[in-house]
Amino acid sequence: MSPALTDALGAANDADIHVALVDKVEAPRSLPTLHAMPENVSSRFDSDEELVAAVRSYTRGEMFAGAQETRTTILCCTDSRRDACCARHGFATYKALVAAADPERINVVQATHIGGCRFAASLMVLPSRQRYGRMRPDDAVPFLDAIGNGEIYLEAYRGRADAPEAAQVAELAAMRWAVDHGLPTTSPILEAKPRTANSVDQLWVEATLPGAVLSIRLRAQDFFVQGNCDIASRGEGKITPRWVLDDIEATSAS
Predict the structure, then answer these.
(1) Is 111 exposed, middle or buried (0-12, 13-18, 19+ CB in 10 A)?
(2) Which of 34, 79, 119, 220: disulfide with 201, CB 3.0–4.6 Å?
């Protein structure tokens, strides 16, 4: 990555805009493709200067010229510069996905960092923004079958990148409850429910599924988080609060 491209990506990050450069080993060009979401527009460039200019214009809120992507895109993190685990596990999963996917319907690409190494292999499905973690090469076929049918591959599902953390936890808990009770794993309708509890570390969410309405109680819990292998090797990390499932029960049939 050139210094100019590194600076452009840093400026995008400072503007709270995530830019993931995507690549295919078998692609005819050495430069990565720039793929914008939620616009679902992708573009290839002939020079590093053109790519840098497109990143900077997008950071300013200006859409770059490109083609509308009609296929489902799967980003697979293989970023060895950030995490050794993403390279080791990510590339094996990427190769399995490319071998099994129909290129007319599914666009499988390598991407720069999209998740901590503890989730390797880490994937994102676009334009739905579904995130998956700890994907193995053996998961490729059932995962692609689920995605192709418009379903969620629950075994490795981590939630939607555009949803708040608590909503992601509640959605996953509701879907796992549905599996355990023989109900369809349709994504639930979620609604936060205020309670009179005096604790700020609890949250109640109502989830409506086909066949049941669930009351989900979440609680905040502190975790010692080491974002990548390099941080772990130095024994560093930070305490980070996360929402976790505390209780779930059916309140009525929907």
Answers:
(1) buried
(2) 220
> What is the structure's pLDDT at 38?
73
Residue 126 burial (10 A CB sphere; 0-12, 13-18, 19+): buried
The 10 Å CB-count burial string (b at 16+, else e) for 197-208 is eeeeeebbbbbb
Please tell me the pTM assigned to this model. Answer: 0.77
- Considering only CA atoms, which of 173, 172, 192, 176 is closest in space to residue 184? 176
Question: Can you tell me the distance from the alpha carbon of 179 to that of 210, in angstroms, rounded to the nearest whole number?
Answer: 12
Separation in Å, CA 83 to CA 2, 114, 116, 118, 228: 20, 11, 8, 9, 6
Q: Is 91 a residue whose pLDDT tops 90?
A: no
* Domain span including residue 15: 3-159
**Alpha carbons 179 and 213: distance in angstroms, whole number:** 14
Q: Select from 57, 155, 69, 51 the least CA-distant residue to 106.
A: 69
> Is 152 in the same domain as 171?
no
Peptide bond into 92 cis (omega under 30): no
Same domain, 7 and 128: yes
Over the stretch 136-193, which tens digit does the pLDDT of each residue have? Answer: 999 999 999 999 888 899 999 988 888 889 999 999 999 999 999 988 877 888 888 7
For residue 34, give the nearest of 25, 42, 24 by alpha carbon. Answer: 42
Taking the C-alpha atoms of residue 142 and residue 164, their distance in angstroms, rounded to an integer, is: 27
134 phi and psi, to 5 degrees?
55, 40
